[in-house]
């Protein structure tokens, strides 16, 4: 049946990069991946927000599985989404259409040049030569944070803290 085909797909996505899943429950991350990879999210009628909303509506509140959902609950969530995605159809017909989208699908591995971009993005954050004034002292030459020791205030504000802060504000403004 179509449902068993969909359940096969559900299982593949449920265990994707999730060692704690035995395939009976799917977490939010993999649920939205399934919706993306199977084309249930089309960016027009069904968005990632819709998918999250549907998931949260049906998910288990048990913290043990981090709020994963069973195939039964998945079906409920899909009926919700089907009404958006296939507006002119009944929830059950819409569900069948969603099952059609899911048929024979597996989690796509999106191995792109993603990693390179994130590395570049953080580079300037850890380049201490670009730091100015008091931030400089919070890091040593290699860019490692010194934690609280690098912050000057620790010795200063032994007095009343709120007054100290107020004072700091007024002096800054008048300059």
Could you list some keywords that capture this structure?
two-stranded antiparallel ribbon, Recoverin, domain 1, mainly alpha, 9 helices, 175 residues, tubulin binding
* Cα end-to-end separation: 76 Å
Largest sheet: 2 strands, antiparallel
Number of separate strands: 2
Strand line-up in the sheet with most strands: 1-2
Looking at CATH, the homologous superfamily of the domain at 2-101 is EF-hand
Oligomer: single chain
Alpha-beta classification: mainly alpha
Integer-rounded radius of gyration: 26 Å
CATH-level-2 architecture of the domain at 2-101: Orthogonal Bundle
Task: Describe this protein's structure.
This protein is mainly α. It has a domain of 100 residues: EF-hand (Recoverin, domain 1, Orthogonal Bundle). The protein contains 9 helices and 2 strands; from the N terminus they run αβααβαααααα. Strands 1-2 form a two-stranded antiparallel sheet. The longest helix is centred in the middle third of the chain and has 15 residues. It is elongated, with a radius of gyration of 26 Å.
